[in-house]
Structures are given as C-alpha cells and as structure tokens.
Amino acid sequence: MKKLCMILPLALILCFMVGCQDKDAIAELEAMKAQAEVEEQNKALVQKLIEEADKGNFSIMDELYAPDFEYYGPSNAEPRNLEECKQFLVPIFTALQLKHTLDDFILEGDKVVTRETLYATHKEELFGIPPTGKDIEWSAIAIYQIVDNKIKKIWVDSDMLGIMQQLGMELKPKEGEK
To answer: Which among 7, 39, 60, 152 could bridge 66 via Cys, Cβ 3.0 to 4.6 Å?
Structure first.
C-alpha cells in the first residue's frame, strides 16, 4: 500500500506534465494555423489586385491599398504614395495592355513575395516612345506588405532596361564620355 501511495502522486505529476505539454503543442499548432490563414488571405488579396489591374480596374487600388501606402520601384529613389503610384503605373498598364503570370508565391508573416512574368503589347505612347505594336515580356519580383488586410507597401524590382530594349531603345554612352 505504501508503494501505491508513492506511485500515485508520481503518476499524477507525470500526467500533469504530459497534459501541459499537449496544451502547449495544441496552442502552438493553433497559432500556426491562424498564421497560415492570414498568409492565405494576404495571398488572395495580392492575387485580386493583380487580376483586377490586368482587367484595367485601377480603382481596386483605392480599395486594397492602405491610406499611408508606399510604392518602391526600380525607377524611384523615394517611395511613391497612392496617387503618385497611380500616376506612374496606370499609364504603363494602359500603354502596354499589361498581363501578369504569377509564377511563384512566398508567404511569410505580413509579406507576400511574387515572382511574375509580365506580357504586354505596346499599343500607346510610353516614356516618349510611340506605339510599336511589339509584344514584349519580362520578369519582376514584388514584395507586398499587408497590414490590417490592406496593402501598406510594395517593393518591385523588374528589368526596365530589358523593357526599353524590347521597345527598340538602344543603350549607348553619353556624348563625350567613355
């Protein structure tokens, strides 16, 4: 009976320890599930933005972008706000009849990273280049930061030189420079 009295408290302590570990594991699993759900919502938000922009629905930017939105692109040293971003991007999308293929997504916390292939036909003047009718293609990588289900920041890196070369522009040194 004495041994039973000693074993019983040990068994209770062991059960308590295992039970606590299971609770911790369950809490961790629930947190991971919640994070995965947020990341999937963020991915869906980015997909919606790109699908709507490809259709020419640029008013989607007002709906999906945060009021303090910032755009960092290959052609601007300082971030553009929402209105500046529209002034820059809408003419590009329009002149090129731009379409995206989303090749890869990486989801991590509040960030969505896309590797994209962009296809376009040069139908209107762009950066002073008259319409060429040429079909062009290039790649880009974009990082979207999502806060409170709104796009707060976008960082884009794309092959601007390749775009210009496909439109018939040539790269040459300035006069008098070697």
So the answer is: 152
> Which has the higher per-residue pLDDT, 161 or 63?
63
Beta carbons of 120 and 98 less than 8 angstroms apart: yes
Residue 115's pLDDT is 97
pTM for this model (two decimals): 0.80
The rounded distance, in Å, linking the Cα atoms of 46 and 56 is: 15
Query: What residue has token string 């911790």?
Result: 24
Domains of the chain: 2-166 (3.10.450.50)
Determine how many CB atoms are found less than 10 A away from the CB of residue 42. Answer: 23
Half-sphere exposure (Cβ direction) of 101: Cα atoms closer than 13 Å: 8
Task: Give the pLDDT score at 171.
Answer: 80
Q: In angstroms, rounded to a whole number, what is the distance separating the alpha carbons of residues 82 and 58?
A: 11
Average pLDDT across the chain, whole number? 86
pLDDT in tens, 65-78: 999 999 998 877 78
- Alpha-carbon span 34 to 22, nearest angstrom: 18
